[in-house]
Structures are given as structure tokens and as C-alpha cells.
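Sample 3 of the quickstart, ligand adenosine-5'-diphosphate:
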Amino acid sequence: GAGIRFDDVGVTYPNGFTGLRGVNLSIEPGEMVAIVGLSGAGKSTLIRAINGLVPITDGQITVGDVGLRGLSGRRLRQLRSEVGMVFQSFNLAKRTSVINNVLMGRLHHTAAWRTLLGAWSKGDVELAMQALERVEIVQKAYANASELSGGQQQRVAIARALAQKPRVILADEPTASLDPPTSHVVMRDLQQINAELGITVVVNLHFLDLARRYGQRLIGLRGGEVVYDGPGSEADESV
Ligand code: ADP
Ligand code: ADP
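Result:
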């Protein structure tokens, strides 16, 4: 996994809204961090700033040894290829197979002609199948993505991120569309991936109980500022 540093990071949107303000954080390689806060607290902004989807207007974010500010387009694409993203709404291509969705994670790691022709290499297919095994969806590899339940779709999205062989996985409210039992399955998958593969995981969670349980470290945001940074088990309702 890669470490992530925030040095005095501020994000002001073009309309003048504050996304983040004076954020200092040091996330160690292989750490799993849960971000909590009310709607509008800055959780999505923080996640998106890490892979350059939101430009920072103050300070610096460093992923591994790469500083994001002033990064060329080519190096930003390189960085994004090493950062897996998981979204609230899964963002799968619904009309194609599960395995094809997972192979999308190989897009930036494989020759363009292969991806255009769908002529994936044996290595790419093996990686995709391994990723599906890890989230226990391998028996659905050739099903259409739309046939899967919400929880299964989210696990396919996690497998797609894994197929990138990422150094970091960023998950933006990955359980927000799921019921509580399914939320736990998805969080356990993320926890296992973190523990067994050493991939750094940063996950936004709307519900404090999930964050307390799965965030060895919990970061609370309010108005774009860090108001809590400590063990999940010690965080109370005020974070
Ligand atoms: P979330 O709380 O999960 O970030 P929101 O409903 O707040 O979801 O935002 C949904 C989308 O709208 C996001 O892409 C976000 O960047 C954008 N957005 C949020 N607030 C504003 C705003 N004030 N002006 C423009 N876009 C916004
Ligand atoms: P959260 O994910 O915790 O709900 P966000 O990061 O989405 O919080 O939003 C933090 C603040 O930034 C909010 O005030 C929101 O309205 C604003 N914001 C988010 N996205 C945009 C955007 N694209 N344009 C303008 N303001 C935005």
C-alpha cells in the first residue's frame, strides 16, 4: 500500500463553497481509515481529492512519493491507475458480464488494442478471476451484471478495483445503497483486502456504528475540517 499525506489542504470550489479547510493527515501505508461526518462535511471532497478528481486550492496531498499539485496529465493518469475507486451506486456496466466489468480494472494496465478488441490476455483474465474469488462472486463471472443483487454488484465493483492491483482503494459511501447485513459483508471484504493484501483503504461512511466497527482509525469531518482523529472504538456521537 501507499501512504497518503495531507499538508494544510484546502479545497474551495469555483462557486466559493468550502470543500476542505486546513486538513493535515498522515495515513500510513496499509492503514484502513474510515471518514465520517454529516452530509456536506467534506467526505466526498476528501476522497476525490486523493485521486485528483477534485483540484486542491491550498496545501499539498502526497500519495506514495507523488505530490498531486501541478502533476502533469500523464502522471495523474498513472496515479489513478494505482488507485481503485468504489462508489455508492456501484457504477457497473449493467448490460455486460460480471467478468467484463472486472476486466475494466485492467484498462490502464494493458495494451489499448487488447481492450478495444476484448482480446484480454490470460494474465488479465486470471487476475480478474482471482479478484472475483476474493469477494466470493466467481460463480457469477459470466452472469449479466444487472442480474446481481445490490450487495453482489458492490462486491463486483470491489473486484474491479482489486484487478487494478491498486496501492490504495478509495470507497465513497460504499454501503449507502445497501441494507445493514449486506453493508457488513461489503465492509468485511474491504477489511480483509486491507489486512491480507496491505492495500491502504480510505472509506467514507454515513453511519457512525459501521465506522466505529471497521475503522481502526476514524476521522471525523465537520465544515471541511478535521474534528476527530483517533480509534473508532473511542469515537462518540459528537464526531
Ligand atoms: P454527497 O453528499 O454524497 O457528496 P451530494 O448530493 O452532496 O452527495 O452531491 C452530489 C453531487 O453534486 C456531487 O458530484 C457533488 O460534487 C455535487 N455538489 C454537491 N454540492 C454542490 C454544490 N453546492 N454545487 C455544485 N455541485 C455540488
Ligand atoms: P459530504 O461528502 O460529506 O456530503 P461534500 O464533500 O460532498 O460533503 O461537500 C462538502 C461541501 O462542498 C458542501 O458544502 C458541498 O455543497 C460543497 N461541494 C461539493 N461538491 C461541490 C461542487 N462540485 N461544486 C460546489 N460545491 C461543492
